[in-house]
Amino acid sequence: MSKKVQYELEYPVRCSPSILYEFLSTPAGLQEWFADKVDFRDNVFSFSWNGATEEAEVLEQEEEEFIRLRWLHAPNGEFFEFRIQISEVTNETILVVKDFAEKKEIADQSQLWDYQVKDLFHRIGN
């Protein structure tokens, strides 16, 4: 089994950090673009897609800056993160997605994130 490596994707977004953070960190926001149904209880998100459910615990978060989650079935040290940055040059809001995948799967995983983020941008009117 190959070891997973961390990769990072950046998406410029025309939206305030506070609005974007709501879509990244709340059940209602995540349900708009990330999963069919989202629940949150005891620091754990439950995401449902087509009847299948996956759970992810919140490892760390800072209001309007980032939220880091770990799938409960994933090894410690692996996580996915949504981080909000502001470009010092353009003052543009940038969504940074960090995730882990096997090297040969990074392109496919990146494509999946591209699709998901495109849906997010559609929901926020970007």
Describe what is shown at a glance:
The protein has 126 residues and is an alpha+beta fold. It has helices spanning 17-25, 27-33, 106-123; strands spanning 5-13, 37-41, 44-49, 52-62, 66-71, 80-86, 93-101.
Structural commentary:
- It is a single chain.
- The chain has helices at 17-25, 27-33, 106-123; strands at residues 5-13, 37-41, 44-49, 52-62, 66-71, 80-86, 93-101.
- It is of the alpha+beta class and 126 residues long.
- The protein has a domain at 5-25 and 60-123: START domain (Alpha-D-Glucose-1,6-Bisphosphate, Chain A, domain 4, 2-Layer Sandwich).
- Strands 1-7-6-5-4-3-2 form a 7-stranded antiparallel beta sheet.
- Strand 2 and strand 3 (44-49) form a beta hairpin.
- The relative contact order is 0.24.
- The model has no long low-confidence stretch (mean pLDDT 95).
- Residues 1-125 form the START-like domain.
SSE succession: EHHEEEEEEH
For the residues shown, what is the average pLDDT?
95
The main pleated sheet reads as: 7 strands, antiparallel
Look at the structure and give the CATH class of the domain at 5-25 and 60-123: Alpha Beta
Order of the strands making up the biggest sheet: 1-7-6-5-4-3-2
Number of strands: 7
What is the CATH superfamily classification of the domain at 5-25 and 60-123? Answer: START domain
Rounded to the nearest angstrom, the distance between the terminal CA atoms is 39 Å
Q: Report the structural category.
A: alpha+beta
Approximate helicity band: 25-40%
Share in β-strands: 35-45%
Q: Mind telling me the C-alpha Rg?
A: 14 Å
CATH architecture of the domain at 5-25 and 60-123: 2-Layer Sandwich
Shape: globular
- CATH topology of the domain at 5-25 and 60-123, anyone? Alpha-D-Glucose-1,6-Bisphosphate, Chain A, domain 4
Question: So how many helices?
Answer: 3
Give the quaternary arrangement of the chains. single chain
Spans with pLDDT under 50 lasting ≥5 residues? Answer: none
